[in-house]
Amino acid sequence: MKIDNCHALITGASAGIGREFARQLAGRARSLILVARREERLSELRDELTGNHPGLTVHIHKTDLADPSQIDELAKWLEREKIDVDLLINNAGLGDLGPFGTSDPARNERMMLVNMVALTSLTRRLLPQMIAKKRGAILNVSSSAGFLPIPGFAIYAASKAYVTSFSESLRAELRGTGVTVCALCPGPVHTEFQQAAKRPGGRPESGPEFVHVPVEQVVRDALAAIEAGRPLVIPGSAMKLGMFLVRITPMSILRLFLDKSANRNGK
């Protein structure tokens, strides 16, 4: 799918990767629909984008994606306003860093609702119109964490494994419809995510600096992958190599490293 003149909806658009998607699409899209909980940040971003690109239409919609009723209201608002979406970027996501046994059950539920349920529900609501028009793309922001279980990041890693698997299955189903699906699986990126994922009194963990990829490159690589029709993109050469090795390593061997990692973090 060619991105130029698209109508793109971006969840989690108020910061980080979502905000960067909005900035890079602003010069190419016909309209943007920015969705997040923080309405003030969305308004600031809208003003920035329309100031730099006067011909761009930007809609904002305050939505808590952990609330299914608000997702339903978002879909109905799009219908009322007759806003057709041909590029859906499911970017919103939550994390939690720490042992599952001491996790906050309410936080766990919100994480699963946002990372999996909201992504699935919004895709289901917007997909039929794409199929009917034989044009569309869905970019699901997954994570390299989804390629293996991660002690201390158990629910997040599992939820991203769901996102990657769902994306691959949906892509196969949609072959020949004019609609494509891509999973973006970045490694560490300097955004607010790590700070938000840490628990009170804990420290954010983001891995060694050499595996980090600038948010600008993550978004550029993702948009290029959509236009090239690629099923999956892992930004950064170090992460590409690392995830290739992870994916070919037998689980029996990975368990040895995972057990050592869990024991080390538990001390």
Explained architecture:
- By secondary structure, the chain is α/β, with parallel strands linked by helices.
- 50% of the residues lie in helices and 13% in strands.
- It is built from 9 helices and 7 strands.
- The protein has helices at 16-25, 39-52, 68-80, 105-133, 154-173, 193-197, 215-228, 237-248, 251-266, and strands spanning 7-11, 31-36, 57-62, 87-90, 136-141, 179-184, 232-233.
- Strands 3-2-1-4-5-6-7 form a 7-stranded parallel sheet, sandwiched between helices.
- Strand 2, helix 2 and strand 3 (57-62) form a beta-alpha-beta unit.
- Helix 1 (16-25) packs across helix 7 (215-228) and helix 3 (68-80) runs parallel beside helix 4.
- It is globular and about 55 Å long.
Defining traits:
alpha/beta, about 270 residues, 7-stranded parallel beta sheet
Form type: globular
Tell me the number of helical segments per DSSP (H or I, 4 or more residues long).
9
By secondary-structure content and strand pairing, the structural class works out as alpha/beta
List the strand order in the largest sheet: 3-2-1-4-5-6-7
Indicate the percent of residues in helices.
Answer: 40-55%
* Helix-strand sequence: EHEHEHEHEHEHHEHH
Share of β-strand residues: 5-15%
Radius of gyration: 18 Å
- Low-pLDDT sequence parts: none
Distance between the termini: 49 Å
Strand tally, please? 7
The overall average pLDDT, rounded, is 91
Main sheet? 7 strands, parallel
